[in-house]
Structure formats: C-alpha cells, structure tokens
Design goal:
Radius of gyration of chain A: 17 Å
CATH class of the largest domain in chain B: Mainly Alpha
Strand order of the largest sheet of chain A: 1-2-8-7-6-5-4-3
Strand order of the largest sheet of chain B: 1-3-2
Oligomer: heterodimer
Number of domains of chain B: 2
Radius of gyration of chain B: 23 Å
CATH topology of the largest domain in chain B: Arc Repressor Mutant, subunit A
CATH architecture of the largest domain in chain B: Orthogonal Bundle
Helix content of chain B: over 70%
Structural class of chain A: alpha+beta
Distance between the termini of chain A: 32 Å
CATH topology of chain A: Alpha-D-Glucose-1,6-Bisphosphate, Chain A, domain 4
Largest sheet of chain A: 8 strands, antiparallel
Number of strands of chain B: 3
Shape of chain A: globular
Number of strands of chain A: 8
Chain lengths: 159, 119
C-alpha cells in the first residue's frame, strides 16, 4: 500500500477506499464553490479539463443537462459512450449522477463543493452496488495505469 | 489470512474443474479477449460465456474490465497488488484532471475580477 501513500503525500488529491463499495476523492480548490460548480456543470468548461492529455483519449461529444432528472452523454469515439442521469443537482453545492454504461454494475457518483474562506473542498464519492462491481472497475483503472506507462515509453523514444 | 487462502484455493480448483474454463484461461494466456470473442471461439452463447468468466473472476483467476459496451478479460494476478496499483492509477487520473480543472477555474476567477473592475 506504500505506493498509494507516497502518491498522496506528493499530490493534492487524496483517494481513499471506504469499506468495500466506496471510493472517496478529495481536493481543495482556491476559488469559491460557485466557480468550481460552474466549471463542472458547463459542458464547454467541463470538456476543457475532464480528459487530461495523458489519458490518450479524445472527447468527441459532450452533452450535459446538469439539473435534477437531466442526462449526460460523453462520447470518446466509436462504441465508447459514458452516460447516465443526474439524480440530484443543487447549484453551487452538490451533483449526484448515475454511471449507466456499465449496466447494473455502475457506480453512483456524488460530488460536493464546500466553501470555507473563499476556498472550496471538493469531495467526490463513487459508490458501487457491490464489492465485485468495484473490483471489476479496478481493471479499468489498472488499464489507465498501463496507458500512462505506454505513453511514458513513447515519450522516451521521442525525446 | 489462512482461511482466506483456503477459500481462494477452493474457488480456484472449482473454477478449473471445467474444461471450457481451462480453455478460456489458455486463450487469455495468449492475449486479452472480449467475452464476445470467447463465446464465438467456444461456440457458446454470450450468457453461457459470461457465467464461465464470472466463475473464473470470482476465483481471482481472471480480471475483466468494461470499456464502453465491451467487456475485456485477462488473466488475473495478485489481488492486493492490483488494488494498490488501482488506487494509485485512479489518484493519478484525478490528480491530472483536477490540475486541468484548476486552470479552468483560474480563468473564470480572472474573468470575474475583470468584470468587477469594469463595472
């Protein structure tokens, strides 16, 4: 587990596994909550940060109707769609959405924005329907890790 | 811990008791395959193959991941290592995402300050 600990120490993002069905991510932002919420709920702004270059993916289409009962769909090319529904949206403080591309195994994601003295603590919780579903998702993150390594190798050959 | 190991072994042996499942492992030993590929290879229905893969997966012998609509299978390795690697990769992704988000928010903040001054 030392790899995860070291990572947390050097980065401003913390990731914690809570029980066997939840992952909790936290990060402070030096801005009021309404701006962090704005960057998360406006599709034009959202697409500027959701896919960091190192992910090696292109976000072709991004439809988001960020209000309670609204839907979203992110398209990363042929057959690569991520979609779901906003279960609860409280402007400036909270967004809850489903991840339906994984069928019944998809997580319910809750992100909250808590402002203190002009800074915002972002807490994102992904809750899976079962421990197995969380483990299965682990494979995907593992693949992301592999993608990073591949990219590093590629960059090494270009340098 | 000992009990866990025994339970894992039981599950592994039960998973290996089936000829198709041994075949699946052999296939996955060569390369990653989707459930659809495997079903075709073993001339089986998708549902049937999903069940076999499910048994192999709960025994920790196979790891699957879903990208879009396709579920890909590969040989599983040490579970604990994987969990640690996963958390690390997950944190790395979110860390990069949030660095980008910082930039977007910074632009919003500056824009707001300019708007206030021009009022």
């Amino acid at each position: 587990m030392s790899a995860a600990d070291d990572g947390t120490a050097t980065s401003r993002t913390t990731v914690e596994r809570k029980g066997d069905r939840e992952i909790v991510v936290t990060r402070w932002f030096d801005a009021p909550a309404r701006l962090v919420f704005e960057a998360w709920s406006n599709p034009e702004l959202f697409r500027q940060w959701w896919v960091p270059r190192s992910m090696g993916m292109t976000l072709y289409d991004c439809e988001m109707d960020v209000r309670t009962g609204g839907t979203y769909r992110l398209n990363f090319g042929e057959g690569m769609d991520f979609y779901g529904r906003y279960v609860e949206v409280v402007p400036g403080s909270r967004i809850v959405w489903t991840n339906e591309e994984g069928g019944d195994d998809g997580a319910l994601t809750t992100v909250t924005f808590e402002e203190t003295d002009g800074r915002t603590l972002l807490v994102m919780t992904e809750r899976y329907p079962s421990a197995e579903a969380l483990e299965a998702e682990g494979g995907a993150a593992d693949a992301t890790h592999e993608t990073f390594s591949q990219l590093e190798e590629l960059l090494g050959t270009l340098a | 811990m000992v009990q866990y190991a025994t339970a894992d072994l039981d599950a592994s042996f039960a998973a290996l008791a089936d000829r198709t499942r041994r075949g699946v492992l052999e296939q996955l030993g060569r390369s990653e395959r989707s459930i659809t590929d495997l079903a075709e290879h073993f001339q089986m229905t998708l549902t049937g193959m999903r069940k076999h893969v499910g048994v192999l997966e709960s025994a920790g012998l196979v790891v699957t991941r879903k990208v879009g609509r396709v579920r890909t299978c590969r040989i599983g390795s040490e579970r604990l290592d994987e969990v640690a690697a996963w958390i690390d990769a997950y944190r790395q992704l979110w860390d990069e995402r949030f660095d980008e988000l910082d930039r977007v928010i910074d632009v919003l903040k500056k824009k707001e300050q300019v708007d206030e001054r021009s009022r």
